[in-house]
């Protein structure tokens, strides 16, 4: 029996951060993790997809090298090399996390945890991944297996993340129908791929495979792609995807997938019912809490109807000494939110003060063009009773965007009309994921349009777009034509 002040179940971006912070506060800490450190984000989500998307971006840049006065011949895609680079990046980061845990004195126990009480677990050895070397081990230990370790602690943090939702779809079990996890196991670029779900996951895979030469169809049941974003952003992405040759079907659903002589046939229902031929069908419609094989009932923690663990603002569950962080709480299924929740939970357990503001959470989608946002959409701001100003500024009006050769997209600021307080920032365009930090900081500091407009921004940079959008909102644009007087 191993004993700790704190046991963290799950070593993802929430769990390992919580473990490190608790250790820094002087607690003895153990982490149970059945995969490599880093969880879904480092192993099967954020990092590997971004590494592969970067390869696609480089390929696309080289294809257009003559636009920049550079002559390149015989350009081709080596998908095996793309996957090897992805794996190298992942290994470097997961090894780095393992090193950080070790250097902070955190004990890592490799295996799968099952609760035997609120603050005690049995740890079992895990078998091979059902998806091979490219897939996570979500399956529980074999029936009748004996625990390899027993662990208890004064406090426990549940940080087991989430898994892809499986649609109850006829044909979902056919060969070639995969989730986002299974996509990493593809050994070649599919000739034809149909993607069910147009949110961040589906849109990123659509970007990757379309750039690498696939014939891509993406099906989304809402009115626009990335429906969690401002409607104008979703519409702009749809137009961009269409220009890139991606078949975009919105307000449409898939009713079944059938085996065909030369692959798969996807039946799409909507305003224009149709069938789509594909070699691969990727289901990316959401995620659910990864708690099925934890014996969570033995902790006594309360969960929502969808199975997410209920927590308060300090990440405490209804059971004393039991906390939960990350995707498993359903608050916001984002790695950076999990990390911040990990800090708050660890500090609370250590007797320190920490807080999280769920109103200021930036999000990024690494499509081409990129998307990023923070705060309220225009529709949400109006629904909340705000009298709003909504202002856009195009990347095409920035000297840096022109010189870089990527002028697609815009920034949109949503602000209160009376005081000019920033209520939301929405970007579609190059480096949106980096630029959104200014919007998050503006909201965190309760900045106004005047303050953004009066802050000197370096020139020529893409970051000037925040200042320019603010000036435009104030009716004082310099680098775009003023609105016509009525």
Automatic annotation (TrEMBL):
<feature type="domain" description="FAD/NAD(P)-binding">
    <location>
        <begin position="4"/>
        <end position="342"/>
    </location>
</feature>
<keyword id="KW-0560">Oxidoreductase</keyword>
<dbReference type="Pfam" id="PF02852">
    <property type="entry name" value="Pyr_redox_dim"/>
</dbReference>
<keyword id="KW-0285">Flavoprotein</keyword>
<dbReference type="InterPro" id="IPR023753">
    <property type="entry name" value="FAD/NAD-binding_dom"/>
</dbReference>
<protein>
    <recommendedName>
        <fullName>Dihydrolipoyl dehydrogenase</fullName>
        <ecNumber>1.8.1.4</ecNumber>
    </recommendedName>
</protein>
<feature type="domain" description="Pyridine nucleotide-disulphide oxidoreductase dimerisation">
    <location>
        <begin position="361"/>
        <end position="469"/>
    </location>
</feature>
<dbReference type="InterPro" id="IPR004099">
    <property type="entry name" value="Pyr_nucl-diS_OxRdtase_dimer"/>
</dbReference>
<dbReference type="GO" id="GO:0050660">
    <property type="term" value="F:flavin adenine dinucleotide binding"/>
</dbReference>
<dbReference type="GO" id="GO:0005737">
    <property type="term" value="C:cytoplasm"/>
</dbReference>
<keyword id="KW-0676">Redox-active center</keyword>
<keyword id="KW-0963">Cytoplasm</keyword>
<dbReference type="InterPro" id="IPR016156">
    <property type="entry name" value="FAD/NAD-linked_Rdtase_dimer_sf"/>
</dbReference>
<dbReference type="GO" id="GO:0006103">
    <property type="term" value="P:2-oxoglutarate metabolic process"/>
</dbReference>
<feature type="binding site">
    <location>
        <position position="327"/>
    </location>
    <ligand>
        <name>FAD</name>
    </ligand>
</feature>
<dbReference type="GO" id="GO:0004148">
    <property type="term" value="F:dihydrolipoyl dehydrogenase (NADH) activity"/>
</dbReference>
<keyword id="KW-0520">NAD</keyword>
<feature type="binding site">
    <location>
        <begin position="197"/>
        <end position="204"/>
    </location>
    <ligand>
        <name>NAD(+)</name>
    </ligand>
</feature>
<feature type="active site" description="Proton acceptor">
    <location>
        <position position="459"/>
    </location>
</feature>
<dbReference type="InterPro" id="IPR050151">
    <property type="entry name" value="Class-I_Pyr_Nuc-Dis_Oxidored"/>
</dbReference>
<feature type="disulfide bond" description="Redox-active">
    <location>
        <begin position="41"/>
        <end position="46"/>
    </location>
</feature>
<dbReference type="InterPro" id="IPR006258">
    <property type="entry name" value="Lipoamide_DH"/>
</dbReference>
<keyword id="KW-0547">Nucleotide-binding</keyword>
<feature type="binding site">
    <location>
        <begin position="160"/>
        <end position="162"/>
    </location>
    <ligand>
        <name>FAD</name>
    </ligand>
</feature>
<dbReference type="InterPro" id="IPR001100">
    <property type="entry name" value="Pyr_nuc-diS_OxRdtase"/>
</dbReference>
<comment type="similarity">
    <text>Belongs to the class-I pyridine nucleotide-disulfide oxidoreductase family.</text>
</comment>
<feature type="binding site">
    <location>
        <position position="220"/>
    </location>
    <ligand>
        <name>NAD(+)</name>
    </ligand>
</feature>
<keyword id="KW-1015">Disulfide bond</keyword>
<feature type="binding site">
    <location>
        <position position="50"/>
    </location>
    <ligand>
        <name>FAD</name>
    </ligand>
</feature>
<feature type="binding site">
    <location>
        <position position="286"/>
    </location>
    <ligand>
        <name>NAD(+)</name>
    </ligand>
</feature>
<dbReference type="InterPro" id="IPR036188">
    <property type="entry name" value="FAD/NAD-bd_sf"/>
</dbReference>
<dbReference type="Pfam" id="PF07992">
    <property type="entry name" value="Pyr_redox_2"/>
</dbReference>
<dbReference type="InterPro" id="IPR012999">
    <property type="entry name" value="Pyr_OxRdtase_I_AS"/>
</dbReference>
<keyword id="KW-0274">FAD</keyword>
């Amino acid at each position: 029996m191993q004993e700790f002040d704190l046991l963290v179940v799950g070593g993802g971006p929430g769990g390992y951060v919580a473990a490190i912070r608790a250790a820094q506060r002087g607690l003895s800490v153990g982490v149970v993790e059945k995969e490599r450190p880093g969880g879904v984000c480092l192993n099967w989500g954020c990092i590997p997809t971004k590494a592969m998307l970067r390869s696609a971006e480089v390929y696309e840049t080289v294809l257009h090298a003559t636009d920049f006065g550079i002559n390149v011949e015989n350009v081709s895609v080596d998908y095996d090399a793309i996957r090897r680079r992805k794996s190298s990046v992942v290994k470097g980061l997961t090894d780095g996390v393992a090193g950080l845990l070790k250097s902070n004195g955190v004990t890592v126990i490799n295996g799968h945890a099952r609760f035997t009480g609120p603050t005690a677990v049995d740890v079992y050895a895990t078998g091979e991944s059902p998806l091979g070397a490219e897939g996570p081990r979500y399956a529980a230990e074999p029936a009748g297996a004996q625990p390899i370790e027993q662990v208890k602690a004064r406090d426990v943090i549940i940080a087991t993340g989430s898994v892809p939702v499986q649609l109850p779809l006829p044909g979902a079990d056919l060969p070639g129908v995969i989730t986002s996890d299974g996509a990493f196991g593809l050994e070649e670029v599919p000739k034809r791929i149909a993607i069910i779900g147009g949110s961040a996951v589906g849109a990123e895979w659509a970007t990757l495979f379309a750039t690498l030469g696939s014939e891509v169809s993406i099906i989304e049941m809402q009115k626009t792609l990335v429906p969690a974003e401002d409607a104008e952003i979703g519409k702009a992405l749809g137009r961009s995807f269409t220009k890139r040759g991606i078949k975009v079907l919105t307000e449409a659903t898939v009713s079944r997938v059938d085996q065909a002589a030369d692959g798969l046939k996807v039946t799409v229902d909507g305003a224009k019912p149709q069938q789509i031929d594909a070699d691969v069908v990727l289901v990316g419609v959401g995620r659910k809490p990864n708690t099925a094989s934890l014996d969570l009932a033995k902790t006594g923690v309360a969960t929502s109807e969808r199975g997410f663990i209920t927590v308060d603002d300090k990440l405490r569950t209804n059971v004393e000494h039991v906390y939960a962080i990350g995707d498993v709480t359903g608050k916001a299924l984002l790695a950076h939110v999990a990390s911040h929740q990990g800090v708050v939970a660890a500090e609370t357990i250590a007797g320190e003060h920490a807080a999280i503001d769920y109103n200021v959470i930036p999000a990024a989608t690494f499509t081409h063009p990129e998307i990023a946002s923070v705060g309220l959409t225009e529709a949400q701001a109006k629904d909340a009773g705000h009298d709003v100003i909504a202002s856009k500024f195009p990347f095409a009006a920035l000297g840096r965007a022109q010189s870089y050769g990527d002028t697609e997209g815009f920034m949109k600021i949503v602000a209160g009309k009376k005081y000019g307080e920033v209520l939301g920032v929405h970007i579609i365009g190059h480096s949106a994921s980096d630029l959104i930090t200014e919007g998050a900081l503006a909201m965190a500091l309760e900045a106004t349009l005047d303050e953004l407009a009066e802050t000197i921004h370096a020139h020529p940079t893409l970051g000037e777009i925040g200042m320019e959008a603010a000036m435009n909102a104030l009716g004082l644009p310099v680098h775009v034509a003023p609105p016509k007087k009525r």
